[in-house]
Amino acid sequence: SSYEGGIRVPCAIRWPGQIKQGIVIDDPISTIDFLPTFVALASGRVKPEWKLDGINVMPRLTGQQKSLPTRDLFWRRHGSSGPIAVRNGDWKVIHNRDQRGARPELYRLADDISEAKNLADRHPDRVAEMMARLKKWESQLIEPLWGKGSKAASP
């Protein structure tokens, strides 16, 4: 699911002597952040041509950085006809394109973590702006090579 109940999960990290015990960080991170973090930990450098969406989160985990930069986090399932979502700060847009008649939904997670109050009708400009960012991001993706949404899965 593209809703918080499907994508918001805890992550526990233990590294004695490097990461202070018992800290809780509420900044959103994603598995896309693991690769750049591990590359940095191995004294490597992420090359721009890799075009990674993730960032090195180690400075945040060690307390060298007070918060992560606000950035877009994207999700897509089942290719260009499946559900899609973007989060920026406390705002999140979800579009369940695979459901007939579905329109983009907008939530303010700081006030509504359960995504029960769709604010799309009250903030159409924010929806349009976030949908434009989703479209730009998605234009860089390919269709799935296997599974639902792939040409191989089509009848």
Explain the overall architecture.
- With 155 residues, this protein is α+β, with helices and mostly antiparallel strands.
- Helix content is 20%, strand content 12%.
- It has a 4-stranded antiparallel beta sheet with strand order 1-2-3-4, with helices on one face.
- The model has no long low-confidence stretch (mean pLDDT 94).
Topology:
Layout: H1 4-7, H2 34-41, H3 58-61, E1 72-76, E2 84-88, E3 91-95, E4 105-108, H4 124-138
Antiparallel strand pairs: 1-2, 2-3, 3-4
Write a concise keyword list for the protein shown above.
single chain; alpha+beta
Low-pLDDT segments, ≥5 res:
none
Rounded average pLDDT = 94
- Strand content range: 5-15%
The main pleated sheet reads as: 4 strands, antiparallel
Number of helices: 4
Strand order of the largest sheet: 1-2-3-4
Using the CA coordinates, give the radius of gyration: 18 Å
**Helical residues, percent:** 10-25%
Which structural class do you get from the secondary structure elements? alpha+beta
Termini separation (Å)? 24 Å
- The global form is globular
* Total strand segments: 4
Q: What is the chain-wise order of helices and strands?
A: HHHEEEEH
